[in-house]
Each structure stands twice: as C-alpha cells, then as structure tokens.
Design goal:
The chain has about 80 residues and is of the alpha+beta class. The chain has helices at about 40-45, 65-70, and strands at about 5, 25-30, 35, 40, 60. Strands 1-2-3 form a three-stranded antiparallel β-sheet, covered by helices on one side. Strands 4-5 form a two-stranded antiparallel sheet. The longest helix is centred in the last third of the chain and has 7 residues, at about 65-70. It is globular, with a radius of gyration of 14 Å. The two termini are about 20 Å apart.
Length: about 80
C-alpha cells in the first residue's frame, strides 16, 4: 500500500503557520483513504450513536471542517 495523492489543499495552502503539521487526507493505492487528525477516541467513543461502533484497533480522529470541505472536490464520486 502507498499514498497516491493528497485529497484537498495542503496544510500550508490552508494557512498552517509551519506548513508542516495539520489535519490531512490522502488517497491510498488500494482505494482507501488515510486521515491525519486529532485523536479523540476517549472523548467521543461514549457519544457514538447506538448504531455505530469501532473495533479495538480503530480510533476516532477529528479533522477540521476546512480540511474536509476543501477536500470535497478531490473526492471521487465512486
């Protein structure tokens, strides 16, 4: 598996002061997506709706609204 491309604007283009670290979204060679975000599993796990669950190896991460909105045009329809 490898990173194929960034989805949306880079952290620098979104105004990151350092231009290096910030939420980010990447498309992977297997068609899945990888997300860099703020880890919030402990805070949000107990707030998941009754029909949602996560495996022990999964984490809940927060991605800023701007990151996701600016990625919208790069996300494939299918």
């Amino acid at each position: 598996m490898r990173i194929v491309r960034r989805i949306g604007a880079s952290p620098k283009a979104r105004g990151s002061m350092s231009g290096d670290t910030c939420p980010d979204i990447f498309e992977l060679s297997d068609g899945n997506f990888a997300v860099i975000g703020t880890e919030a599993t402990a805070e949000l796990d107990k707030l998941l709706p009754a029909d949602a669950a996560r495996a022990d190896y999964e984490r809940i991460v927060i991605v800023s609204r701007e990151t996701l909105v600016r990625a919208k045009t790069d996300i494939p329809e299918v």
